[in-house]
Amino acid sequence: MSRFTDKVAVVTGAAQGIGAATAHRLAEEGATVAVLDLNEDGARATVDAITAKGGAARAYACDVADFDAVDGVFRRIGSDLGTVHVLVNNAGVTRDNLFFKMPRNDWDEVIGANLTSVYNCAQAAQRYMVAQKYGKIVSLSSRSALGNRGQANYAAAKAGIQGLTATLAIELGPFGVNVNAVAPGYIATAMTAATAERVGATVEDHQRIASERTPLRRVGRPEEVASVVAFLASDDASYVSGQTLYINGGAR
User: CA spacing 20 to 30 A to 22: which of 32, 51, 220, 251?
Assistant: First the structure.
């Protein structure tokens, strides 16, 4: 498949997990991928893996919660790669705790990394997209947007992404920009492994319990989320906008 030939895609939080899988998928389908991450070494590792397979990618170190840093890096991407056609907002962190014990800095950090970052990157990307009358924005929400014990900050951020997505679809749609979100359930990543550790479980036991609660009787893989992101970022989804698609194995 070559759905992204001649397209420039920006993927945030692409040093590992879903972000790295998405960067690989878009590159495999022809995109030139700007790999953004706070972890510069991790971003370079993703780029090296992509280029080793014949893909095109460049690494950029950026704190996506910092508006000025995002503005600067998108200007560099525009200079280096010409424009931005696709933005995948994947960057995020967790700082889990019961609400009554949650310190303010953990609230601020999670809102900044997970929600404010989407505002920052979408602001920067839409300049290119509106001018060229074409663009695709896909942001990572979560099943936790529906509420999850110990994740008041993360749930609020991920619910905010769904509202922001719906609103940007309304405002940017007249300029040929599709805006959507995906909301993964339990995906086997470093983030869910950290959650297992937080609750005192092994990764294997944590995944087993999640699998038993999921109709498909297994947890998801980053590549399975990446495939849905790629669909929404492609012209196959040209009349899909303002939607949040849950990727959770049928869980309710």
Answer: 251
Q: Is residue 75 part of a domain?
A: yes
In the numeric block, which tokens belong to residue 163?
């509202």
Predicted confidence at residue 116, as pLDDT, reads 98
pTM over 0.85: yes
8 A C-beta contact, residue 161 and residue 243: no
Tell me, yes or no, whether 200 lies in a domain: no
Query: Domain limits at 132?
Result: 8-187+221-247
* Positions marked catalytic: 154
pLDDT at 196: 74
Residue 36 and residue 11: Cα distance in Å, rounded?
A: 6
How many domains is the chain partitioned into structurally?
1
Domain membership flag for residue 193 = no
pLDDT tens string 190-226: 777 777 777 788 888 888 888 888 999 999 999 999 9
